[in-house]
Structure formats: C-alpha cells, structure tokens
Amino acid sequence: MTSLDTTALRKAFLDETDRLADLYQSADPKTPIPTCPDWTLSNLIAHVGGGNRWAAAMIADRATEFLEFQQVPDYRRPRDLDEVDGWLRAGARAVIDNIDTVGSDVPVWTPFGSPRPAEWWVRRRLHEATAHRADALLALNHEVAIAPELGADGLSEFLEIVELGPRFETPLDEGASLRLHATDTDNTWTVLRSGDTITTTDNQTPASLTVHGTAVDLYLLLLRRLPADSSTLATSGDLDVLATWLERIKF
C-alpha cells in the first residue's frame, strides 16, 4: 500500500486540476463521456469544479454536517466558456488556501462517517480529479497518462473508501480474497473480507485471485474504467472474484 506525503498530495492536486483545465481548453465541451453515462465533458468539468468549491466552503465554515450545494458560493460552472478555465483552477487552490487558513487538523464533515481533518480533503479531491481526467482522456481517445505513484496512491485511497463502508455492498464473498500487484511500482494490495466490509494489507499472502498490471491500470480497473479482460493485465486464480467485485463496486 502507499500514500503520498502532504506536500506531494497538494502539488499533485493542483497539477491534475491544471491538466484537466488544459484538456478542457483544447476539446469540444459537448464530447460525450462514455464512462460517465449521460455526461458531456462540460458536465464533467462542472462536477469536478463544483465539488472543489463545495469542499472549500465546508473547510472554510468548519462544517461538521453536510453543506447543501446551493449554499456554496460560485458552485455552478460559469456559462461563459472563457471563464471556466479560471473557475476550475481557482476552486482547487481555494481548497488548499482554506485549509491553511483554518488549520489542517480542524475536523470537517466527510461522506464517510465522522468528520476528518481538513487536510483529508486534498487527497479526496485529488483523486476525484485523476479519475475524471482519465474519463476525459478515454472519451477523447487519448492515452491515460497518470504518474505511476499517483495511480498507486489513488488505488490505496479507493480501497480505504471501500473499507469505510457502508456506501458499497461488500465486494468480496466469504472466503474470497484479491491481491493486486503493481508491476511498475512493486506495490502490493491484498484485500480480504472483514465482516461486512474489507481490510487491505501489503503482505504477500496468497489470494483467491491475483491481478498484475501497472499501478494506473489497476487503479482504472477498480474504478471500472479498464475492462477486466484488458491485455495489459495478467490474472491467476478465480476470475469470479473480480467479476463479483466489479459488479458490487460502482464508483
């Protein structure tokens, strides 16, 4: 398992947002996003940018309960296409600026149980950006270029979210286990069922199914952005374990 440090997470969050903004500038806003049915690229940008504004507002308010979107200043994407670029970039920076203002350890509401330190939101918003930039790149038939260490951290964060429950159905049946091995970063995630959720370790315990691939490909696989039968993946064991996982976890 892996987790980037605070400095690396903050830099990656701003960089990924900037790359998404650059992509939007060079593409047709009406481009359909097949991995997000009924969305266009414009909808995707509205979702990411609005989400950043929402997180920034909760941090600024030290919110310990859900904040309604209509209460968030500048939540909606500007109608003027020329203003969208600055709106998207500024929203990400507002998240970090507001954390620095209120303090990184101040408890703030999250969708996953009790409030967490404000700094938690940087990693969450980072991987919202990585996942949706991948959606945009796939829609535009571009290579999904994400740094391996960022893919590994995104995968770790995704498994942590699933482990928190109860948003998702338990993705593993009793007795089933899943091992993921990143061939480029040499990270290993061994996922076991634990009651009604899962637990993840980095040990080399044999599993019902092992999947080998790059960190980014494994990340995209669990996000259902890469098909299980992709030629870039190598599997050994019970393939039904992966089929069950992907059916139950839709993110």
Q: Can you walk me through this structure?
A:
The chain contains 7 helices and 7 strands, in the order αααββααββββαβα. It is of the alpha+beta class and 251 residues long. It folds into 2 domains: 6-139, dinb family like domain (Four Helix Bundle (Hemerythrin (Met), subunit A), Up-down Bundle), CATH 1.20.120; 150-248, 2-Layer Sandwich (Nonspecific Lipid-transfer Protein, Chain A), CATH 3.30.1050.10. Strands 5-4-3-6-7 form a 5-stranded mixed sheet. The model has no long low-confidence stretch (mean pLDDT 95).
Uncertain segments are: none
CATH class of the largest domain, anyone?
Mainly Alpha
What's the CATH topology label of the largest domain?
Answer: Four Helix Bundle (Hemerythrin (Met), subunit A)
Helix/strand order, N-terminal first: HHHEEHHEEEEHEH
| Mean pLDDT across residues | 95
User: Structural class given helices, strands, pairing?
Assistant: alpha+beta
What's the gyration radius in Å? 18 Å
Number of strands: 7
Q: Tell me the number of structural domains.
A: 2
- Provide the CATH superfamily of the largest domain: dinb family like domain
Can you summarize this structure?
The chain is an alpha+beta fold. The protein has helices at 6-25, 41-61, 81-102, 120-139, 148-164, 215-222, 239-248; strands spanning 107-108, 116-117, 177-182, 188-194, 197-201, 209-213, 234-237. The longest helix has 22 residues, at 81-102.
